[in-house]
Write a structure and sequence with these properties.
This protein is of the alpha/beta class. 33% of the residues lie in helices and 13% in strands. It has a single domain, classed as Zn-dependent exopeptidases (Aminopeptidase, 3-Layer(aba) Sandwich), CATH 3.40.630. It has eight helices and seven strands. A seven-stranded mixed sheet has the order 1-3-2-4-7-5-6, sandwiched between helices. Strand 5, helix 6 and strand 6 form a beta-alpha-beta unit. Helix 3 packs across helix 8. It comes from Enhygromyxa salina.
């Protein structure tokens, strides 16, 4: 029995279905591309910030610019188009979260409190600087609405035998900041000072999130090695589960556990996908840079689909 596809929800998620010219219109989508950190435009931030009434750190938009996954949505959509171009019998369901992770992270269990970032922990579901009860209630409602929509999307695609791609982007360096708290903007300004920024450890250009902390593989069989080879051959320096892995606080982990062998998550270094790395300022994806990576991801995904 097929599961209905989710519908867009204003200010929560965009949903788009792309079908190739040779697609069976009665078949479920072959691939889901879910972008839980897709709210990467200043307008996304301003819209939700205007709905929050409690006190928040001054200039919090600077944290938004550093921490948002700029180009993840552009990369995801470019990958969908590349797949359909190469395999016109395929169809792709795209889901873009419109809720900025500055306020609530839709790739986290909502009540996850986070941990020391400089020791490898992840940012929280709702940051500690959001204290107003009405604000927290609003954010929990938005989070729940998005997660339910994503759950429906994974059921409709992966539950029917398809695959999912969950693309993220991250900053080029692991900044020496241990917590997301009231001092986050001050600490970011310190860490991103031009005299200090390049002293922080450089991250892998691509990090494939294919395994949990125990090393158990959850990604489609064979795709980890295949992408490592393809990315290396194209001049990238990829790693697998290096900066991050499939952490149980993330919904990427939850979807991978629910649909083992059907979900691929990955991180791309943001400075490779934008016109210039300006950590405290707005940045825009460069289409050609996203397409370069998409043309490597699409063939690997197509082969994984063929092996189903």
């Amino acid at each position: 029995m097929s599961v209905a596809l989710p519908s867009p929800v204003e200010h929560v998620a965009d949903v788009e279905l792309l079908r190739g010219p040779r697609t069976d219109p009665s078949a479920p989508p072959d691939l889901l591309i879910e972008v839980p950190h897709g709210a990467d435009e200043r307008g996304h931030y301003d819209r939700l910030r205007s709905r929050l009434t409690g006190d928040l750190p001054a200039d919090l938009h600077e944290f938004f610019h550093v921490n948002t996954d700029v180009a993840a949505w552009a990369l995801g959509r470019a990958t969908a188009l590349a797949l359909i171009d190469a395999a016109p019998q395929r169809s792709v369901l795209l889901v873009r979260c419109l809720i900025p992770r500055t306020f609530v992270d839709c790739n986290r269990v909502a009540d996850y409190r986070g941990g020391p970032l400089d020791a490898g922990a992840l940012t929280p579901g709702i940051p500690s600087y959001v204290r107003d009860p009405n604000d927290r209630a609003l954010l929990l409602d938005l989070h729940g609405r998005y997660v339910e929509l994503a759950r429906q999307a994974f059921a409709a695609v992966c539950g029917a035998g398809g695959l999912a791609l969950v693309p993220h982007t991250y900053g080029p360096r692991s900044l020496g900041i241990d917590a997301v708290d009231d001092d986050i903007v001050t600490n970011l300004r310190w860490a991103c000072d031009p005299e200090r920024h390049d002293s922080w450890p450089l991250r892998a250009e691509v990090d494939l999130l294919t395994r949990d902390g125990e090393g158990q593989l959850f990604a489609p069989a064979g795709i980890e090695a295949e992408l490592m080879d393809a990315l290396t051959g194209a001049g990238f320096t990829p790693k697998a589960n290096d900066t991050y892995f499939l952490h149980p606080s993330t919904l990427g982990h939850a979807w991978s556990v629910a649909y083992p062998g059907r979900v691929l998550s990955l991180e791309l270094r943001r400075d490779l996908l934008v016109e210039a790395w300006r950590p405290l300022e707005p940045m825009q994806a460069v289409p050609a840079a996203c397409e370069r990576v998409a043309k490597l991801l699409a063939p690997a995904l197509e082969r994984a689909l063929t092996r189903r």
